[in-house]
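Example S7 (structure tokens).
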């Protein structure tokens, strides 16, 4: 009788262990997340075009801020943007050449409109308009660099994205602190 109960208990334990293994197996075999359609469609040429436009927007808007702003904190920020994004543009050019990708420098319609709005902004509104544009531009650059760093093919452009992601995040934090002042 004890043998029969032991055999029944062992069978039940085996059944429970098998059921648990079947329940946990799919969890362990979850597929890795796939890039979004937007990220997947962004190949090296698309990345280079958007990254070059992002850097160029930063350069042009910083030049505007240096001419128009009277706030020393804003002009200091703008000078940093000018220096960092000129350097980033040169590094992007080198990475694109190494990966055999041509740079086609064309600002998006939204970037052109933002620059025009900054040029036409009232003097009293310029600093807030510039800093607002910086917040948005850096959010977009963070998404672009992060997506390419995560999903782009190995090569110099991916190395560029990985290397510049932290700098752009730092720029955004700094822009945010100036916006909150």
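Recovered sequence:
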């Amino acid at each position: 009788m004890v043998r029969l109960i032991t055999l029944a208990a062992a069978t039940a334990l085996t059944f429970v262990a098998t059921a648990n293994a079947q329940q946990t197996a799919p969890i362990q075999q979850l597929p890795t997340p796939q890039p979004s359609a937007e990220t997947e469609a962004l190949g090296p040429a698309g990345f280079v075009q958007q990254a070059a436009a992002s850097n160029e927007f930063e350069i042009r808007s910083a030049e505007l801020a240096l001419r128009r702003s009277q706030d020393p904190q804003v002009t200091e920020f703008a000078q940093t943007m000018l220096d960092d994004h000129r350097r980033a543009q040169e590094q992007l050019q080198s990475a694109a050449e190494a990966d055999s990708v041509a740079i086609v420098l064309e600002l998006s319609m939204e970037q052109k409109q933002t620059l025009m709005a900054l040029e036409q902004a009232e003097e009293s509104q310029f600093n807030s308009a510039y800093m607002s544009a910086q917040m948005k531009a850096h959010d977009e650059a963070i998404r672009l660099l992060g997506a390419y760093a995560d999903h782009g093919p190995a090569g110099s452009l991916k190395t560029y994205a990985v290397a510049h992601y932290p700098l752009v995040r730092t720029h955004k934090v700094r822009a945010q602190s100036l916006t909150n002042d």
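Notes on this example. The first helix runs from residue 2 to 28.
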